[in-house]
Amino acid sequence: VFQKWVNREISNFDYLIQLNTMAGRTYNDLAQYPVFPWILRDYTSEELDLNNPAVFRDLSKPIGVVNEKNAKTVKEKYVFEHLYENFEDPLGMIDKFHYGTHYSNAAGVMHYLIRVEPFTTLHIQLQSGRFDCADRQFHSIPATWQALMDNPNDVKELIPEFFYFPEFLENQNGFNLGQLQMSKELVNDVVLPKWAHSPEDFIYKHRKALESEYVSAHLHEWIDLIFGYKQRGPAAVEALNVFY
């Protein structure tokens, strides 16, 4: 598979799906759901220029430190986490870590897929029988990216659906997802980047970005973090990639 990918006989999308499968990830287990990278950082331009390297996320860094400003906080957390009052580790048994949550978990999958069954029902069950408050819903792709940049504790990567399934971005079932506190805006379809004219257009351009020259040249750096030698040990510490 690796050789086929290097020879460009299979797409980046197919290679990532196969890697996830080999790593034991599956659509049948929300706790081990396939994980895909955030690949863009430009969610505000009118047009998306895939020939400009500046529109892409730095794939060599974990999502928690793609924003350079977060690196200092993350490093300090690794050194001082065990000193925090609220961190329960009286015996000092837990290894040090940079991030207290994970780049892929069941709640994150439900978060992204809340508009589509069976994930809607699973989300409601998780939230004790109702939808979570509107401000915490997945309501906008630009806002989700901005939140990642502002908050080193939010380290969610993407799911494969961002590259092939436009329906998850639409509230086709008309669920009442509440309204945002500040703007009073109702949460309905997911707000798209300006460069996407419809959910289909977003998926088409996002998939094109995944198969772009830039991502093809750098995808192995992200794979090292998630599936490769930077998952644990000294290489993970150095890459600020140690998870609880």
From TrEMBL:
<dbReference type="GO" id="GO:0019901">
    <property type="term" value="F:protein kinase binding"/>
</dbReference>
<dbReference type="InterPro" id="IPR000409">
    <property type="entry name" value="BEACH_dom"/>
</dbReference>
<dbReference type="GO" id="GO:0016020">
    <property type="term" value="C:membrane"/>
</dbReference>
<keyword id="KW-0853">WD repeat</keyword>
<dbReference type="GO" id="GO:0008104">
    <property type="term" value="P:intracellular protein localization"/>
</dbReference>
<dbReference type="GO" id="GO:0005829">
    <property type="term" value="C:cytosol"/>
</dbReference>
<protein>
    <submittedName>
        <fullName>NBEL1 protein</fullName>
    </submittedName>
</protein>
<dbReference type="Pfam" id="PF02138">
    <property type="entry name" value="Beach"/>
</dbReference>
<dbReference type="InterPro" id="IPR036372">
    <property type="entry name" value="BEACH_dom_sf"/>
</dbReference>
<dbReference type="InterPro" id="IPR050865">
    <property type="entry name" value="BEACH_Domain"/>
</dbReference>
<feature type="domain" description="BEACH">
    <location>
        <begin position="1"/>
        <end position="244"/>
    </location>
</feature>
